[in-house]
């Protein structure tokens, strides 16, 4: 293969024409994208790339993870915390297949990560060579785009396209598979000044006529509600969201990924909705006459039963991805565009309406259904208390990365997130084992911020090898293990829906404090309430990574809960 | 349109890269869209191919399918020609087992359908039939009395007539 049709060095920047190896091209592209930390593990096919990284180590920090899955999740955390693109890298075959879960996770959660995988040398491709796997074949359905680079002259363009695709429009994972010999070959090609992809032109501002129509519908509504999704964070539209809500006196509920996009202590905030959302957030969705969906895909865990979700309500939906509009809900005002830019157009058209009676009604539900009340528990520490203690001791200023399961819901519920990018969780794919590596990426994104990893005992064990990375790299993450000796969410479902036939729900755990110590980390274990508070306070002060093995109530359930397939009407609230 | 109401005709312009067909096929499979036929060939523009995809599904499903197609980076445009003035054609080759005394009868039917006999052997004839899909279907219905040995169909291709308005069904991602 030769250079792509019609493209020559003419269309390129005036950068020096000194030849660069494929590996150097990749490093330069990372620098151009502002990436200063990457995560990975080398192998035969990617060794030439590591030889380039060696030369760039003063500008690009390579964090050696202990399982490639951790590289992908760490890059995800880094991307979400910085708003830049994350980079994870592996060798061919087993290294690359270990990244598959991460790609699937990024595409579900719209996170821009570029995956650089080594591939066997070109002459060996297709021959079942040692450590060969068709990873671009595997990654097609779980990436925004992918490349197998067969000519080093294509690499500068491919790399700039990869970073562009990962970070623009609806962000997502981009996979670049590079044969070993392509890393080694040299090219004088440089990246074009501007990425030019005919089939990729993400929208900017939403259609003006539709924006006016949205304002009309919102102004005419008596019981509107804003459903704030991840798009608010991605587009940097938190300020516009705040203005929209306060200008129109419109209450806000958030999706799991929208948590923190609207300050949760604001009187107009009614918390997270959905299966384990707050009862009053969900009640409001039943009564609203106008749903304003902002940067959300109306996920089934958030919506529940569609016909009990704002029945009869008008739907205004703003999202950058046209394929999300009308996918789940019939939409009255569909707007495709970047949220920040579109909300800026919408704001001046929003009228200051008195919505006191609607807000009174909602506050009534808030009063009568206090979903965040933590019950008394004389004999055991409740996991909710742990989250609350982290909130209190950090003053709400710590970034929290939750794993998957009950711990994830408690971390979302019992902490008040005042800003975007304070709460991180793998909501769409829900892969256990996300939190610890993601927390490493979040920490390295900005080391001044306190970072707490809130994980279940089960999820911790999936990537516990990363204790080694924390220790070796001195990554100052505080790990709170909500140790309930169960795959808690599984136990809860078996209790509720399988009449208590517990199968594969019990965990025979090691002593996590000792495990942490063996890895060279500061580890503390306790089952007492006082010691739990002390341990969190100690960890908060401690200058280095800490693991707290917190033995909490073993059979606590997450409330409220909307039984799957039903609506808000059948919400199960805490019986205590 | 000649097609049954639940079959929709999408015409996509796609970059002529290796793997683009895999991407399209993968998308249809994972989203559960049903391809009735898919035909790919060069377009008028070097470096770009045209795909004609006959999709089965409700109008809503097909709308979603168009949007998902458009999200593929290598898909430059998608047009839904369903219900729009368009010319659609398919080519079929049908090998029919015929005794010598049956040849004339088959040739006659073929002629009525404006098909062509492109090969004759001692025991069989190959009919080439071009036209709208429904015409080929009807021809096959009519010749059921003959044992058919082999059928090979290209899948339908479509091109819009010029009086079609601005590109419809075009989504951006
Ligand atoms: C990789 C993976 N495997 C299985 C599951 C299914 N699953 C969801 S929650 C859960 C239990 C999690 O247990 P734990 O990490 O201890 O958290 P808890 O619910 O107890 O807080 C399981 C097994 C999953 N989400 N991810
Ligand atoms: Mg557990």
Largest sheet of chain B: 5 strands, antiparallel
CATH architecture of the largest domain in chain A: 3-Layer(aba) Sandwich
N→C terminal distance of chain A: 69 Å
> Got a strand count of chain A?
22
CATH architecture heading of the largest domain in chain B: 2-Layer Sandwich
How are the SSEs ordered, and which strands pair?
The complex is a heterodimer of chains A (576) and B (173).
Chain A: E1 20-21, H1 22-32, E2 37-40, H2 47-55, E3 61-64, H3 68-82, E4 86-90, H4 94-97, H5 100-109, E5 113-119, H6 135-139, E6 145-148, H7 155-167, E7 174-179, H8 180-184, E8 186-187, H9 208-220, E9 224-228, H10 230-235, H11 238-248, E10 252-254, E11 269-272, H12 279-287, E12 290-294, H13 300-303, E13 314-319, E14 333-336, H14 339-346, H15 356-368, H16 383-394, E15 399-402, H17 406-413, E16 423-424, H18 435-445, E17 451-456, H19 457-462, H20 467-473, E18 478-483, H21 488-497, H22 512-518, E19 522-526, H23 529-541, E20 546-551, E21 561-562, E22 571-572
Parallel strand pairs in A: 2-3, 2-4, 4-5, 5-7, 6-7, 9-10, 9-12, 10-11, 12-13, 13-14, 15-16, 15-17, 17-18, 18-20, 19-20
Antiparallel strand pairs in A: 1-8, 21-22
Chain B: E1 7-15, H1 20-31, E2 34-42, E3 48-56, H2 59-71, E4 75-80, E5 86-97, H3 103-112, E6 116-120, E7 124-131, H4 133-142, E8 148-153, E9 157-160
Antiparallel strand pairs in B: 1-3, 1-4, 2-3, 5-7, 5-8, 5-9, 6-7
Bound molecules: thiamine diphosphate and magnesium ion.
Please provide a written account of the structure.
- The complex is a heterodimer of chains A (576) and B (173).
- In chain A, helix 23 links the parallel strand 19 (522-526) and strand 20 (546-551).
- Chain A has three domains: 20-187, Thiamin diphosphate (ThDP)-binding fold, Pyr/PP domains (Rossmann fold, 3-Layer(aba) Sandwich); 208-368, Rossmann fold; 383-565, Thiamin diphosphate (ThDP)-binding fold, Pyr/PP domains (Rossmann fold), CATH 3.40.50.
- With 576 residues, chain A is α/β, with parallel strands linked by helices.
- Helices cover 36% and strands 16% of the residues of chain A.
- With 173 residues, chain B is of the alpha+beta class.
- In chain B, 26% of the residues lie in helices and 39% in strands.
- Chain B contains four helices and nine strands; from the N terminus they run βαββαββαββαββ.
- The radius of gyration of chain B is 18 Å and the shape is elongated.
- The chains are: A alpha/beta (576), B alpha+beta (173).
- The interface between A and B is medium-sized, with 25 and 27 residues.
- Residues 456-458, 484, 486-488 of chain A line the site of magnesium ion (MG).
